[in-house]
Amino acid sequence: MSNILHITASIRSDAESVSRQLGQSIVDGLAAKSGASVTTRDLAANDLPFVSAERFAAGLTPAADRTTQQAKLAAIADTLIAELLAADTIVIASPVYNFGPPASLKAWADLVARAGTTFHYTANGPEGLLTGKKAYLAIAPAAPRWARSSTS
Ligand SMILES: Cc1cc2nc3c(=O)[nH]c(=O)nc-3n(C[C@H](O)[C@H](O)[C@H](O)COP(=O)(O)O)c2cc1C
């Protein structure tokens, strides 16, 4: 059975958020077609830590060699990476905040980017290791009307 990982990031509710509604309609369409199960990770909960030197080192240390403290530090990234590995389809629904992705989405990306696990370095530069997956991006910048009225 296939599994969809649905990442949401808008600080607005399901009823208000364009990216949430767009992402949900993609997930609903895919799930109806394939019968896939859905795992949702709502980054608007703002419960992901930013990367630190200690957390980065803990992630790169093989699980069997981690200290108790390193195991604790690596746990959240281990969970997020496991969610990614388990998914064959990833739907990322995101607003645009201050000309880029929300900080919560970057925090997620920093945690799941682990050399040797989700990507590796080659002579030609970094290469992804999570092959054979499909990703959909549902990105909602401001509507042109909103952007015009906010600058006039
Ligand atoms: C804090 C904040 C910053 C924003 N910055 C931008 C921006 O830089 N560019 C843009 O086009 N829209 C910006 N917007 C508008 C949102 O991208 C727009 O409302 C979009 O619909 C948000 O997605 P959502 O409907 O899923 O919440 C911003 C909105 C908020 C709340």
How would you describe the oligomerization state of the chains in this entry?
Answer: single chain
Task: Determine the mean pLDDT.
Answer: 94
The CATH C-level name is Alpha Beta
Choose one word for the global shape.
globular
Topology diagram in text:
Elements: E1 3-8, H1 18-34, E2 37-42, H2 53-60, H3 68-86, E3 89-95, H4 103-112, E4 119-122, E5 125-128, E6 134-140, H5 144-151
Parallel strand pairs: 1-2, 1-3, 3-6
Antiparallel strand pairs: 4-5
Helix pairs in contact: 2-3
Note down, in words, how this protein is organized.
- The protein is of the alpha/beta class and 152 residues long.
- The chain has a single domain (3-151), classed as Rossmann fold, CATH 3.40.50.360.
- The protein is 41% helix and 22% strand.
- It is built from five helices and six strands.
- The chain has helices at residues 18-34, 53-60, 68-86, 103-112, 144-151, and strands spanning 3-8, 37-42, 89-95, 119-122, 125-128, 134-140.
- It has a four-stranded parallel beta sheet, with helices on both faces.
- A hairpin with a 2-residue loop joins β4 (119-122) and β5.
- α2 crosses α3 (68-86).
- The longest helix is centred in the middle third of the chain and has 19 residues, at 68-86.
- The relative contact order is 0.20.
- It binds flavin mononucleotide (FMN).
